[in-house]
Amino acid sequence: MSDRSNENGSRSRSGGNGGGNQRGGNQRGGNRGGNQRGGNPRGGNQRGGGSVAGGQRQRRPRISGARIVAYDVLRDVVERDAYANLALAARIREARLDGRDAALATELAAGTLRALGRLDRVIELAANRPADEIDPRTLNVLRIGAHQLLSMRTAAHAAVHESVELQRLVGNERAAGFVNGVLREIGRSTNEEWDARIADTAKGPDDALAVRTSHPAWVVRALRDALRAEGRDAELEALLEADNASPRVNLALLEGAGITAEELALVEPDAIDAVGPSVIGLELTGGDPGRAIAGAEERAGIPSGLLRVQDQGSQLAALALVRATPVAEGERWLDLCAGPGGKTAILAAEAAVESATVRANEVSDHRADLVRDSVTGVDAVAPGVVKVVSHDGRDHEAFGCGRDTHELYDRILVDAPCSGLGALRRRPEARWRKQPSDLPELTALQSELIDAAVAHLKPGGVLAYVTCSPHLAETRVGVDRALKRHSGLRELDAKRAVRAASRLGESLELPGDHLSAQLWPHRHDTDAMFVSLLSRE
Ligand SMILES: C[S@@+](CC[C@H](N)C(=O)[O-])C[C@H]1O[C@@H](n2cnc3c(N)ncnc32)[C@H](O)[C@@H]1O
């Protein structure tokens, strides 16, 4: 079936950026904002050539622009550590794809990246060789082709034909037969049959589940542990499946908009639904979010910047801090890790009606600018409510303290840097970049940020410790350790506060004995946000 001797060549038939000039390709797109820290998802090696979309080639490919963009994005992410969403936006712009092709490119690239673990195992079984023995460019072509065969409704002959064409364009032309053979082999079995073969060849049940649902095995174990802490480990498969579905775009309608979420849904019945757990949350029914927001602002007379894209779990986390205890006039609030400012915007809008003020701190200057952008809408309707600064959250300056002054706050949000295991459905490549070895450094930083916040919390004040990770080391263990370190600290009922911020009220399902609240994609259709509320006696 396969032609192994053709596999490792890296020349391009065209001599252009299909592979000839390995470093001279157009690198503009994917490297903008590329995350240079992490390892490559699934460890692709670095031999691949430059951009297809931006390079020169000798003949026009007989393949769609969407597939070329998907291939370029895959390479940007796998080989250059780019963020998929940034690479996609840049490549789509560069290739000038229309809306339909942009949606196809997004599904091809994001879907392939999300499913990488399972696709690679299927390719290994079909090719009868380890994925790391396949030329990286050919492997990426196979991944995109296999994703179309297994998860999209692409006709098998079209998926195989276009993949062979793509291989001719981007890789070793002599491996086109190999691509053809492997993809035909993949297309001969159903998904269920492939899952059975995955199970038969797995190292054990956890490996089978991890590969079938395309998660690293350590992530599967961490998610199971977190569900077990609520007595809900039976929900593991539902959670892993939810991680593999692209979420609908959610919106937050901030205080000051002059209209409720339910009323706005009546004004925009074709574009917006008032569904989801957050009392200020909405869901877009489809289409371009920017256009939907602009249309809603105009028709409902909403001041610009008060209707924003935001996951409803994040909305609940920010609102829980405000709903934890009654707000007194003139309160001072602090958002310690504010970038890019989604929760700051909610806090600032709430502060404006509560006669409170917000100081928003973010360690990165660039992300502090994003916080400034995110609060322009609130600032326009309530000038001076929010101030943005940039310091390390462990330093006194973050809290506005001088050499002889010590500032205290009524409410502090520590939305801590974390592994992000709760937002895997949003970032298709993220699960392959995280390592268990990332955790000790993160949990140490989380503890230090909590300690700094506790030192600047007024007696009777409330600290919300929030992560977009359900990993117990970053959630319950971190909170329990903080309670041990600070004898004057006690935990408040975060479940009650989250329910108070939810349109579902008491029926918002938050099982388990802990006072903290854990949200889940499969159960609440939110990111897996963790919220603990702490108060100083
Ligand atoms: C989970 S994100 C916050 C998300 C934000 N609250 C929002 O809703 O848009 C964590 C943020 O903490 C910032 N950060 C990391 N280390 C920090 C530190 N030592 N002090 C302050 N902020 C830090 C990161 O740059 C990142 O922007």
UniProtKB/TrEMBL annotation:
Annotated family: Belongs to the class I-like SAM-binding methyltransferase superfamily. RsmB/NOP family.
SUPFAM superfamilies: NusB-like, S-adenosyl-L-methionine-dependent methyltransferases
Domain SAM-dependent MTase RsmB/NOP-type intervals: 226-537
Gene3D superfamilies membership: NusB-like, Vaccinia Virus protein VP39
GO molecular-function term, one example from the UniProt record: methyltransferase activity
UniProt organism field: Leucobacter albus
Signal peptide: none
Record protein name field: RsmB/NOP family class I SAM-dependent RNA methyltransferase
